[in-house]
Amino acid sequence: EGAATPAVVYSNSNGAWSQTGYTDGAAYTVSASKPGYTITPSVQTITGSSNVVDFTATPDSYPSIVSAISDKPVIQCGESGLYGGGVANVGTVTLTVETSGLNDGTVVGAYFVTSQKADVQVSAANHQRTIAYGRVNDNEAIIEVNPSQLRPGRYEFMVMIPGLSIPAYVPMTLLRSDSSLVPSITDITLSTESMSNKDAGVVTVNIQTENVPDYYNTYVWKQSLAKFLPVPYDTVCNVALLKHDGSSVVNTDWIFKDNMASIAFNVHDLPAGSYRFKVMFNTKTHVGYPVRDDPYADMLYTPLVAYKDFTVYDAETSNDITGFAVPGQTGASVIDSANHTVSFSMPYGSDVTALRPDITINGASVSSASGADVDFSSPVTCTVTAQNGI
After folding, report:
1. Model confidence over 234-244: pLDDT tens digits?
2. Residue 128 CB neighbour total at 10 angstroms
3. Nearest CA to 174 among 84, 270, 39?
4. Are 371 and 348 spatial neighbours (Cβ–Cβ below 8 Å)?
5. Measured between alpha carbons, how far is 237 from 262 in angstroms, rounded to an integer?
6. Calpha distance 7→21 (Å, rounded)
7. 297 and 218 in contact (C-beta within 8 Å)?
8. Beta bridge partners of 255
9. Are 351 and 373 in contact (CB under 8 A)?
């Protein structure tokens, strides 16, 4: 009040500002503003011209990638090579990147990585990863990438803004040229699904698959020729017997042929408990081919994994029904070990007064002998006796 009005504010190139024309001893209120920023504190009071005023400007929003999408998330490779061969031949893939808080003209980059976030070496000429760029316009960037040198597998585009540590990932799958032939494990059967802890015998694991090749190609970088060379790999089936905690008791590899395999396991001296056979397809190279870590090796063939339960029971104390089947029944019997019940269904109108169930047990004997006539017009009690008489 009654004090002189200060002169116009002067700002230098470093952002520092100064102002003259104050009346000594007078109180002045100072406020600062900048579009898109929150100023702290919003107002300060100074007396005279000798005070130093500091404000903190915080952006209302930090530069970021809001979203990134591809116009071709799934791509069919061209016809080439053995099963699993081929390369992408689709021209340009367009990535649309939505950003926030970025000035027009800001560079946004994208390059290929595997699904494990490892760099992909895609150029046979110079063995360098492919990088593409786009520029922001009204918080949107368009990036065009050519994946023509990539082979079948699961990839991601890693989209980055210079100076930002958090990228965005856009998935891309390159399907084999014969991708309609999806490999799968269709069935696993065991010669026996349970065994006594006193037994020492053989369990045969029978595996049936569809569209699993006997071999396929992977590609190894040959430095002297400056290019990738195809190397045939056998398809190998690995079968492991696992404890309940997932640790392996025993495992073996088997060269797989014609979509089937039967692998015999010697099982002995196992404690009573629940186990699982794990069936997995991996690879093994032919002898004579020098193979190093290869950026395509984990992508050309997606491992197949399936499990089959196996039980080792205590020979002295077990008294369980493990199998129950009646001629002519509809569907499979349901054995509820926890509640000690077995249920099954017969076609409507069936005579259930003289059925002959086929009963399989872990134990010494069962009160209703397997194959004997049993009247099921009302619930039937079967008693299984263990080796110890209980």
Report:
1. 677 889 999 87
2. 11
3. 84
4. no
5. 10
6. 5
7. yes
8. 236
9. no
Task: Write the pLDDT tens digit of every residue in 111-145.
Answer: 776 544 444 443 333 333 557 889 999 999 999 88
Q: Name the residue among 34, 29, 32 with its Cα closest to residue 42.
A: 32
For residue 18, the 8-state DSSP code is E
pLDDT for residue 157: 82
Complete DSSP assignment for 249-269: EEEEEEE-BTTEEEEEEEE-S
Q: Which residue has the higher pLDDT, 50 or 311?
A: 311
Residue 326's CB: how many other CB atoms inside 10 A?
19
As given in the structure block, the two tokens for residue 335 are 């054995």
Q: Would you say the C-alpha torsion 131, 135, 138, 139 has a positive or negative sign?
A: positive
Strand-pairing partners, residue 96, are 69, 142
Q: Which residues pair with 8 in a beta bridge?
A: none
Distances (CA, A) of 80 to 43, 152, 189, 387: 70, 11, 36, 63
Residues 6+ apart with CB under 8 A from 117: 156, 158, 169
One-letter amino acid of 202: V
Q: What is the DSSP letter of 106?
A: -
| Tokens of residue 260, six digits | 């089937």
The residue among 276, 279, 284, 278 whose CA lies nearest residue 301 is 284
Average of per-residue pLDDT across 181-191: 84
In 3D space, the residue among 385, 360, 384, 355 whose CA is nearest the CA of residue 372 turns out to be 355
CB atoms within 10 A of CB 329: 16
What mean pLDDT do residues 295-306 have? 54
Please give the C-alpha separations between residue 164 and each of 109, 115, 141, in angstroms, as whole numbers: 11, 21, 16
Please compute the mean of the pLDDT values over residues 282-296 and round it to a whole number.
38
Q: What is the spatial distance between Cα 171 and Cα 72, in angstroms, rounded to a whole number?
A: 10
**What gap in Å lies between CA 342 and CA 381, rounded to an integer?**
10
Question: Which residue type is seen at 335?
Answer: I
Please give the radius of gyration of the chain, using alpha carbons only, rounded to the nearest integer: 36
Q: Which helix (H) or strand (E) holds 321?
A: strand 320-325
CB 338 within 8 A of CB 192: no
